[in-house]
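Lecture notes, structural biology module. Today: joint structure prediction for complexes of two components.
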Amino acid sequence: MKKGRVAVHGSIHEVTAHEDGLMLEDGRIVAESEVNWLPPVQPETTFALGLNYADHASELAFEPPKEPLVFLKGKNTIIGHEGRTKRPVNATHMHYECELAVVIGKAGKHISEEEAYDYITGYTIANDYAIRDFLENYYRPNMRVKNRDTCTPLGPWLTPKKEIPDPMNLTLTTKVNGKLTQEGSTRDMVFSVPFLVSYLSQFMTLSPGDVILTGTPKGLAKVEAGDVVETEIEGLGSLKNTIIESREEIISVN
Amino acid sequence: MKALAYLKGKSLPEEFDPQTENPGASANEFDILVSGDVYGVALNDRLFLDKNESTFNEKPYNQPPTAPVLYIKPKNTWAPHQTTVALPPDEECVQTGATIGVVFSDTVSSASYQQSKSAIKGLTLVNDLQLPHESVYRPAIKERARDQFCPMGPWLTIDALLEDNLATTTLETYINGELAHSFSLERLYRPLPQLISEISQFITFTKGDMLLVGSAHDAPLAKAGDHVTIKADTLGELQTTFSQAEN
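The predicted structure, tokenised, for the full assembly:
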């Protein structure tokens, strides 16, 4: 059963979907409008993939990589469903990225591709925003582009592995203010979910709570303050986020 | 001077004076002393940046970095004092990056250094390990994020933020008892105050996070069998031993 985490009535609860709203652990039903959504998992190490869909790589004028392009994210960047993401007031190139997020459930090292699914507990949706104004060619994509406070919404649900028999054949879509702007399928990943679990575990120990964001397909579009962005993955739900203006970090204009 | 020893199996750290006491009688009891995110800063060595300016003006870099070049040392890399770190089977050596870790006790967001000072819990030694790599174009996860590649400790010195904010601190690295390298933090291109104010513009530090201030580009290499000790005044000695992993 899909599970979410919310803050409601003064404390944090695990919730499941119910026909009248959301059900707390003790059976109480609350309306969705009453809750604040939190990320469904509190990620330990968050991995993210760059250029993991061939059509997206060509959109950015890159050849798909020969080896996974992996970067890491901190806890500062993760927020929940219906959260608000800060956009520097004069940024010119901020875009969303709808991604299948794989949640690790069991510790492992040197995991084979065949065994990889044994180490996965479930899936959720990530929106891996990038602000390309800050792009530099050092450890690219650098953290100022990809690891900003509030720039990685995650959720709403953690969907158990058994409810998703084939994660490599799911439709991903993004809507900005209700208009479809991105559509793709996880079948077009360059490096598959089991490959990535195996690959990472060859040189690092994976642990429960680690999360792998598996990259985004073609269909980038800019977002502006006030935009409502919905990233949706077949079988996992829809992750909604609102862009707000931030004056904290002004981009210097040369 | 006060320091906190985080000992395995104890829920609270023990306070002591590192100038007069040594809690290291059973040093293998030291535990890791962070719980959040650990950020490192690459290319923060002024000598290296000056010498390689032309490289950084060429492809694929095109221009020198304008902001701190950050990386994360994830949880699998964290290791306490006196850890034996296994090098991958096919790697002959590892670069030992002596540095100082600044551990936060509170939130620091869009803050000046002055504003952030009360949120710094203390300082510790860190041996920021990496497999040697030339290119800094793509994130160096395979080189920097291996298991146990971030030994730290032995303890946290809690009032060692010197008047000059580390600017004259020197870190010495001994390999098998011999002085192999000496790193003056005068070499930091961005000193600690500037790192905190620039990074906290877009990354909020929270309790249990740690920021590594940067290591020397010519930091020494160690191989399997070596014992490495990093020393600095009042921060103690951080010892790491290297072995070779079998396949």
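Point to remember: Residues 88 and 248 of chain A are 7 Å apart (CA to CA).
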